[in-house]
Amino acid sequence: MQFPDKYKDPNHKPEIAIALTDNFVACYGFASSETIQANLNQNPKLGEIFPVTETPLNEAFLRASIDRMFNELDLEENTDKRTECISQIAAHIETLKPEDRSEHQNLCMQLVEQYGTGDIGILFSFLFNILRLKVGESFVISPDEPHAYISGDLIEAMVSSDNVVRGGLTPKFKDTKTLQDMLIYEFRERKQNSGEKKVDEEGAKLTEYPTGY
Question: Which residues pair with residue 205 across a beta bridge?
C-alpha cells in the first residue's frame, strides 16, 4: 500500500454527519447529470474546462473530468493555469446579480473567499450535490463516495478507522491518485434525513438515525 503512514488500518469508512447548527453546509456525491449540465451551461469557463462530447452526461464524462482535474490542473507546474481558470469562473459570477446566481455559484464564491483561487476542490464543487441541513438533520456517507464539510457544526460518527483520502479544500496531505481510483462515479441526487423520533421504555425522547451499516 502507498503511504502506509497515512492509511494505518484496512477498514472502510462509512460515516454519518448530524448537524448541530442550522444551515450546516456540506457537499456529498456526484450531483445529477442535469445539475452538472446546468453548471456547465451557466459557467462558460467551466464548460470549457470540462467539455461535453456526449449527452446526456455519462460516467465517462465524470472520469474524464476528475482525471483532468487531478492529473493536469492540480499539478504544481499548472498552478497558474488552475488559478486563472478559477479566477475566470469567479469573475463571471461576480457579474451576475446575487438573485441570479445558482446555489453552486454562491458556494464557489464562498470557497474562493476561504481558499483563494488555487484550490482544485473549488472546481470539484460544481460536480457535487450541495446539502443544507438544519439542527438534527443528517446524511450517511457510504465508503468511496466524495464529500466535503463546508460550514457549521456537526456530530460525525464513523467506523473505527483513521483513513482519510483527501483531494482538495484542505491544507492537509492530499492523495489524488488513490482518491481517483476509489471514487464511485455515479450521478445521484442526495437528501438529508431527519431521523426517527422515538420514546424509550423510560420515557426518554430519542432520535434514531438508521445508517444501513
Answer: 199
- Distance CA(42)–CA(101), nearest Å, equals 9
Residues 163-185: tens digit of each pLDDT? 788 898 888 888 899 899 999 99
pTM metric for this prediction: 0.90
Determine phi and psi for 36, rounding to 5 degrees. -65, -40
Concerning whether 132 is annotated as a catalytic residue, the answer is no
**Higher-scoring residue by pLDDT: 49, 196:** 49
Q: Which three cell numbers stand for residue 108?
A: 464557489
pLDDT at 133: 96
Instruction: Specify the 3-state DSSP secondary structure of 20.
Output: coil
Which of 82, 132, 166, 190 is labelled catalytic? 166
| DSSP three-state, residue 92 | helix
Give me the pLDDT at residue 160, please.
73
Backbone angles phi, psi at 2, to 5 degrees: -70, 145
Q: Which residues contact 205 (CB under 8 A, 6 or more apart)?
A: 197, 198, 199
